[in-house]
Design a protein that fits this description.
- The radius of gyration is 21 Å and the shape is globular.
- The N and C termini lie far apart (52 Å).
- The chain has helices at residues 10-13, 19-32, 51-62, 75-89, 105-116, 133-139, 155-165, 188-201, 258-271, 277-288, 292-313, 340-351, 377-393; strands spanning 38-39, 99-102, 122-127, 143-148, 170-176, 204-208, 234-239, 252-255, 328-329, 353-354, 356-357, 369-372.
- It is built from 13 helices and twelve strands.
- The chain folds into two domains: 4-49 and 292-394, Alpha-Beta Complex (Aspartate Aminotransferase, domain 1), CATH 3.90.1150.10; 54-288, Type I PLP-dependent aspartate aminotransferase-like (Major domain) (Aspartate Aminotransferase, domain 2, 3-Layer(aba) Sandwich).
- Helix 5 (105-116) crosses helix 9.
- It binds 4'-deoxy-4'-aminopyridoxal-5'-phosphate and glutamic acid.
- 4'-deoxy-4'-aminopyridoxal-5'-phosphate is lined by residues 43, 104-106, 130, 176, 180, 208, 210, 239, 241, 247, 252.
Length: 395
């Protein structure tokens, strides 16, 4: 019998699976077993994909558009992405040379890390942050270095902490605004601090803007690529999963300086070849068609956010700020006396409410849990009632 334990690559053996994906899978399993699960774990819109987008995908399938496409993506999609980046983000990229279409933004992070990082390089992440940045860096042999960043972090603190984190080995900074899990939207002043550090120390910046459209209360999305001197060292990462409720279609893209994109293209050619053909046609419809469906979703998310946060704040031991963007509530549960992991595990066992423990997003997430409000009003109300009952049972 083969020795399964030892004949596995060490870098993978030492890697943990995705905490967000594993909670989503567990919730799905429990539901399949017949439990009435309220799944507030993963960030997956409950809305169907807009009909015009789905129809464009079906039309492409019916027209026989079912073969390999150019590895970078079909020209009309590359042009649509370039137009979007220029008009909405003030970042001009050449469609044929500076943009790559990928099956999901997550894949683009993986490919960027493979292409840009050497073993031992350091990657600056802001804590708390989404769960897949560090593993993508680590799979390239690089080392994540964390800088704390939360609603109360002042500009002066950010500057000091960021400067302290930079070493001669630092190569890349990954930032995410609006942020998963906190919803925090970076201000132009905060972005300028990162831009200053990147220019001073010659660093790449990967700007994950996947929640760009999901923003509330007049907060404004600014892309760091549009700040003076930054386009030459920034990669904008975005995709249609969240903005167009297209998680299962798997469509993301990355835009950046040609020399970097050329290196990523090699990794992409040797791994996935191209994003799915008919999905790329649907993506053109999503980007070029009417955007009122996205506006409708944002309006609904805002109402759900307000209702959920107010129900959470009515529970003794829980405090929750209003998130500025994305679709996650990030309540502090330290007042219940449980750790993040205990809270999430027991809540799932006792009340069948699936959440993601805050510490999955970094050390700064301890004391928090993440609840996705990309869920129906009924689900959210039921979830909040179950959480209230659960917390009451602890006393
Ligand atoms: N970035 C962030 C911050 C995310 O939350 C997600 C969630 N899936 C992704 C990137 C990747 O999205 P996708 O691969 O579905 O495009
Ligand atoms: N991005 C979503 C989340 O954070 C989906 C799961 C994942 O890709 O991590 O829950």
């Amino acid at each position: 019998m083969p020795d399964y334990a030892t004949h596995i690559a060490r870098r993978v053996k030492e890697l943990a699976g995705s905490p967000t994906v594993s909670v989503m899978d567990k919730a799905r399993r429990l539901r399949a077993e017949g439990r009435a699960v309220v799944d507030l774990s993963g960030g997956d819109p409950d809305f169907p994909t807009a009909p015009n987008v789905t129809e464009a995908g079906i039309a492409a399938l019916n027209a026989g558009f079912t073969h390999y496409t150019p590895s970078r993506g079909i020209p009309e999609l590359l042009r649509a992405i370039a137009r979007k980046l220029e008009t909405e983000n003030g970042a001009v990229y050449k469609p044929a040379k500076e943009i790559l279409v990928m099956p999901g933004a997550k894949q683009a992070i993986f490919v960027a890390a493979q292409a840009l990082l050497n073993p031992g390089d350091e990657v600056i992440l802001f804590d708390p942050c989404w769960v897949s940045y560090a593993p993508c860096a680590e799979l390239a042999g690089a080392v994540p270095v964390y800088v704390p960043m939360h609603a109360q972090t002042t500009a002066a603190e950010l500057r000091v902490d960021l400067t302290a984190a930079v070493t001669p080995r630092t190569r890349l900074v990954i930032l995410n605004s609006p942020n998963n899990p906190t919803g925090q939207v970076w201000t132009a002043e905060q972005l300028q601090i990162v831009a200053d550090a990147a220019q001073q120390h010659d660093l790449w910046v990967l700007s994950d803007e996947i929640y760009e459209k999901l923003i509330y209360d007049g907060h404004r999305h600014v892309s760091i690529a549009a700040l003076p001197g930054m386009i030459e060292r920034t990669m904008i990462l975005n995709g249609l999963s969240k903005s167009h409720a297209m998680t299962g279609w798997r469509l993301g893209y990355i835009a950046g300086p040609e020399p970097l994109i050329e290196e990523m293209l090699k990794v992409h050619q040797h791994s996935t070849t191209c994003a799915a053909s008919f999905v790329q046609k649907a993506a053109v419809a999503a980007l070029e068609g009417p955007q009122d469906y996205t506006d409708m979703m944002v309006g609904r998310y805002k109402a759900r956010r307000d209702a959920l946060v107010s129900s959470l704040n009515a529970i003794p031991g829980i405090r929750c700020e209003l998130p500025q963007g994305a679709f996650y509530a990030w309540p502090n549960i330290a007042g219940t006396g449980l750790t993040s992991t205990q809270f999430a595990e027991r809540l799932l066992d006792v009340e069948a409410v699936a959440t993601t423990p805050g510490n999955a997003f970094g050390a700064a997430g301890e004391g928090y849990v993440r609840l996705s409000y990309a869920n129906s009003d009924e689900m959210l109300a039921d979830g909040a009632a179950r959480i209230a009952r659960f917390v009451k049972s602890l006393r």
